[in-house]
Each structure stands twice: as structure tokens, then as C-alpha cells.
Amino acid sequence: MFKGLVGLVTGGASGLGRATVEQLLKQGGRVVICDLPSSPGQETAKQLKENVAFVPVDVTSEKDVKNALQTTIDKFGRLDVVVNCAGIATASRVYNFKKDQPFDLKSFQKTIEVNLIGTFNVIRLSAGLIGKNAPDADGQRGVIVNTASVAAFDGQIGQAAYSASKAGVVGMTLPIARDLAKQGIRVVTIAPGLFRTPMMEQLPEPAIKSLEATVPFPPRLGHPQEFALLVQSIIQNPMLNGETIRLDGSLRMQP
Ligand SMILES: NC(=O)C1=CN([C@@H]2O[C@H](COP(=O)(O)OP(=O)(O)OC[C@H]3O[C@@H](n4cnc5c(N)ncnc54)[C@H](O)[C@@H]3O)[C@@H](O)[C@H]2O)C=CC1
Ligand SMILES: C[C@]12CCC(=O)C=C1CC[C@@H]1[C@@H]2C(=O)C[C@@]2(C)[C@H]1CC[C@]2(O)C(=O)C=O
């Protein structure tokens, strides 16, 4: 089923996105990696060699996303699967009483712009292209997978912006799945817990260790490949639609 499938993965140069790119290629798919020009996307595509292309993209830009979709068509002729992994993590309390300073509004706006609006921008522009595919025997034309976070449900201190952006992704999953149902395009969101990626590795190792200890089972950070395996299952299972799946070892984040 994956042979010849064409996927577009945002944030595909790093972490969960990169693992997804590798998994799709391993299964016989072809992939367009979309990531910032400053990301290691070009080197990643070179390392992975065949059936892969890198397009520099800021997911918040209509022009960049349209250019990536055009490259997908020029290079691979179609688009079957979009996986939205691009995202940023920011942290700040709503009011810093020590510095007598409110949350920086620009930082709040940027987090929403990339994580929520960027995800929506990619979905809205790619849906038309996926909708051009001939339907399979089940009427399916393609699949869109988004990445939220468990912070959408149990946001911690300092995560107002990040949690709001990810809750927005969870909130739009069902209505967009309904919008696209007639065209046979499924939309599913994954809400990861704690995964060992460059985003997580911004934290000092002792902080990572103490976070790991809060995961009931398995008591460790997730491997990016475990995220990629869920993306694969979502693509394979036509009954999954309009839902957000937690992938978190039963973690419930503490305040
Ligand atoms: N690592 C974790 O434990 C968790 C991660 N997540 C989410 O998973 C997604 C992937 O995160 P990781 O792989 O951990 O992070 P990462 O930092 O390794 O990868 C994120 C990628 O997104 C790209 N990116 C950032 N802004 C972009 C933009 N405007 N346009 C295009 N690309 C952009 C970055 O260049 C980077 O390559 C993010 O949405 C993150 O919020 C959610 C829950 C837990
Ligand atoms: C943004 C955080 C917290 C503050 C900091 O010093 C460094 C960070 C980088 C890693 C982030 C931190 C955070 O707020 C929670 C997340 C975003 C973490 C990576 C995964 C994370 O735990 C998450 O998304 C959980 O759902």
C-alpha cells in the first residue's frame, strides 16, 4: 500500500518529522521534506538519497507552501499523505511577578502562528491537491496527520501559548475531517507525550530525567520511530478519522 505513495512532511528535517520521513521511505513511499531554510533539510535529503526531496518552507507562508506543492507535483506527480510536524515550543508565565512583566504578546502570537495557523495553512492548501486523486475501492483519496501535544489537555505552568496552539490543532481536527469527508480525505491528530528529539534536548539532562520518571509505562522518553509507527498505522487504517490519539505511555503532565 505504501509503494509509490507520495507524502509531504513538514518539520521533516528533525525529530518526529524526520523519523516519519524515514518510515515512509522504508515502506516504499516517496517524500517531500518541508522545513525552514535554516534547518538541516538539504543534508537530510542527501543522506536519505532516493525518492526524497527537500523544499525550504515556512509553514506560515502561503507562497512557500504553494511552492512545495508544485515541487511535489513536478517531482512525484501526486500527493497522498500530509504529515504536519513543524512546530516550536515556547515557555513563559502569563505574568512574571518578579520582573513585573506580562507575557510577551509577540511570543504568544508567534507560537499560535507556527503551531496552529501554520498547520491549518498546510492543510487548506494541500487538500485541493489530495482531492484530485482517484478514489480507492473505499472512496479514499488521502490522509492528513497533524501533531498536537498532551499539553493540549494537561498544559503545565508556562505553557499557555503552547497549550493554546496545540488545543487549536485538536479542536480543528473533527471539523476539518467533516469538511473533507465527501472527498474521502481523512484527518487524524497525534498528541505525543515526551519524545527524545532536538526540541526536548533543549532541556538539561537532569530535567529530562525527571520528566522521564513521570511516565507510568514505559518510564522513558518515546523514540521518534514510535511516533512514525503510529503515522503508518493511521495511514493503513481507514476507520481512523476525525480523532486525536494520545501517544504518551499514559503520562498525565503535572502542573
Ligand atoms: N518532542 C516531544 O516530546 C514533543 C513534540 N511535540 C510536537 O511534535 C512536533 C515535532 O517536534 P520535534 O520533532 O520534537 O521538534 P524538532 O524541533 O526536532 O522539530 C521541529 C521541526 O519543525 C521545524 N519548524 C519550526 N518552525 C517551522 C516553520 N515555521 N516552518 C517550517 N518548519 C518549521 C524546525 O525547523 C524543526 O526541524 C512539534 O509540533 C512539537 O510541538 C509534541 C509533543 C511532544
Ligand atoms: C518549552 C520547554 C519548557 C521550557 C524550557 O526551558 C524548554 C523547553 C523545551 C522542551 C519543551 C518544554 C515544554 O514546554 C514542554 C515540551 C513542549 C518540551 C518538549 C516536549 C514538551 O514536553 C511537550 O510538548 C509536551 O507535551
Automatic annotation (TrEMBL):
<comment type="similarity">
    <text>Belongs to the short-chain dehydrogenases/reductases (SDR) family.</text>
</comment>
<feature type="domain" description="Ketoreductase">
    <location>
        <begin position="4"/>
        <end position="198"/>
    </location>
</feature>
<dbReference type="InterPro" id="IPR020904">
    <property type="entry name" value="Sc_DH/Rdtase_CS"/>
</dbReference>
<dbReference type="Pfam" id="PF00106">
    <property type="entry name" value="adh_short"/>
</dbReference>
<keyword id="KW-0560">Oxidoreductase</keyword>
<dbReference type="GO" id="GO:0006631">
    <property type="term" value="P:fatty acid metabolic process"/>
</dbReference>
<dbReference type="GO" id="GO:0005739">
    <property type="term" value="C:mitochondrion"/>
</dbReference>
<dbReference type="GO" id="GO:0004303">
    <property type="term" value="F:estradiol 17-beta-dehydrogenase [NAD(P)+] activity"/>
</dbReference>
<dbReference type="GO" id="GO:0047044">
    <property type="term" value="F:androstan-3-alpha,17-beta-diol dehydrogenase (NAD+) activity"/>
</dbReference>
<dbReference type="GO" id="GO:0003857">
    <property type="term" value="F:(3S)-3-hydroxyacyl-CoA dehydrogenase (NAD+) activity"/>
</dbReference>
<dbReference type="GO" id="GO:0008210">
    <property type="term" value="P:estrogen metabolic process"/>
</dbReference>
<dbReference type="InterPro" id="IPR002347">
    <property type="entry name" value="SDR_fam"/>
</dbReference>
<dbReference type="InterPro" id="IPR036291">
    <property type="entry name" value="NAD(P)-bd_dom_sf"/>
</dbReference>
<dbReference type="GO" id="GO:0008209">
    <property type="term" value="P:androgen metabolic process"/>
</dbReference>
<protein>
    <recommendedName>
        <fullName>3-hydroxyacyl-CoA dehydrogenase type-2</fullName>
        <ecNumber>1.1.1.53</ecNumber>
        <ecNumber>1.1.1.62</ecNumber>
    </recommendedName>
</protein>
<dbReference type="InterPro" id="IPR057326">
    <property type="entry name" value="KR_dom"/>
</dbReference>
